[in-house]
Specification:
Rossmann fold, Bifunctional protein FolD, EC 1.5.1.5, 2 domains, THF_DH/CycHdrlase, binds NADPH dihydro-nicotinamide-adenine-dinucleotide phosphate, purine biosynthesis, 3-stranded parallel sheet, single chain, 6-stranded parallel sheet, about 40% helix, alpha/beta
């Protein structure tokens, strides 16, 4: 292996440490405790795990965690009313609605009912527009975590060729906007891209956000490139049981890349750390205080 393995777990612990320091200052100097409300609808097991983990880490950094759990058959009206109450609650600085929502609920309507200033996931159409026009916004947590790791590893990203595989609203598109904001030359690839291997081979930075286990082999990677693997895929092990793999073939990619994030232990931990950081940012903005850098 030639690649440096980017330790997302350690980096996320550092980010959480800084968040905890900021929270302690907000409490001692201003008597304010940032609060994050998480709304979970239904019994999706993966969502339940994420929500539990978010709640635990929120409390660990000294913030207040509010959980609102609803049965899968909650009406849209009732859900919108809950969000309206959270929007008006001064103790709640961040609101996150765990996706996906059950089919009968209009996801866009629900997300766009969140006060954009409390939209710590950065999915509200106002935040999407602000990000796209290079203005101060709430930035989606997963791409923000990827950007932080890239900046930490490279310093400046200016002029680098970046390929983002995947064009979802929650990862691919905002990731591309962030890389563009850092002056990369950005290509967004997707399921209709022709010669994906050729496109990826040009890249100094590859961000894979597809959801297909180990789709990207090492011979697609330009020697020395940085590979950020967003994918989280559960696959069966030959000996029974399951394991998590990314969208990239770790061993073959690590053999040619300059740096690579592992799965697990790469992008995943950074996502929740960025959620906590966004909540502190939202709290500071709401109170007219200096934001964490
Ligand atoms: P989506 O399913 O919303 O998007 C997947 C994207 O991949 C689509 O744009 C799709 O293209 C593209 N795609 C599918 N097949 C191919 C292919 N053969 N070649 C090229 N592109 C392809 O997924 P998400 O963006 O929500 O998530 C992507 C992955 O990241 C998942 O594994 C998910 O679990 C993980 N994830 C991890 C997070 C973390 O914290 N680490 C957070 C969020 C997601 P098209 O648009 O043409 O269909």
């Amino acid at each position: 292996m030639t690649a440096t393995v980017i330790d997302g777990k350690a980096f996320a612990a550092k980010v959480r440490g800084k968040v905890a320091e900021h929270v302690a200052r907000l409490k001692s100097e201003h008597g304010i405790t940032p609060g994050l409300a998480v709304v979970l609808v239904g019994e999706d097991p993966a969502s339940q795990v994420y929500v539990r983990s978010k709640g635990k880490q929120t409390v660990e950094v000294g913030m207040n965690s509010y959980e609102h759990r609803f049965d899968a058959d909650i009406s849209e009206t009732e859900l919108l009313e809950t969000i309206r109450q959270l929007n008006n609650d001064p103790d709640v600085h961040g609101i996150l609605v765990q996706l996906p929502l059950p089919k009968h609920l209009n996801e866009d309507l629900v997300i766009n009912s969140i006060d954009p200033a409390k939209d710590v996931d950065g999915f509200h159409i106002s935040n999407v527009g602000l990000l796209g026009t290079g203005q101060k916004s709430m930035v989606p947590c997963t791409p923000l975590g990827c950007l932080m790791m890239l900046r930490d590893h490279h310093g400046s990203l200016s002029g680098m060729d970046a390929v983002v595989i995947g064009r979802s609203n929650i990862v691919g598109k905002p990731m591309a906007q962030l890389l563009l904001g850092d002056s990369c030359t950005v290509t967004i690839a997707h399921s209709r891209t022709k010669d994906l291997a050729g496109v990826v081979r040009r890249a100094d930075i590859v961000v894979a956000a597809v959801g297909r286990p180990e789709m990207v082999p090492g011979d697609w990677i330009k020697p020395g490139a940085t590979v950020i693997d967003v994918g989280i895929n559960r696959v069966d092990k030959p000996e029974g049981g399951t394991r998590l793999v990314g969208d990239c073939q770790f061993d073959s990619c690590a053999a040619v890349a300059g740096a690579i994030t592992p799965v697990p232990g790469g992008v995943g931990p950074m996502t929740i750390a960025c959620l906590l950081a966004n909540t502190v940012t939202a709290c500071c903005r709401a109170n007219g205080l200096a934001e964490p850098q």
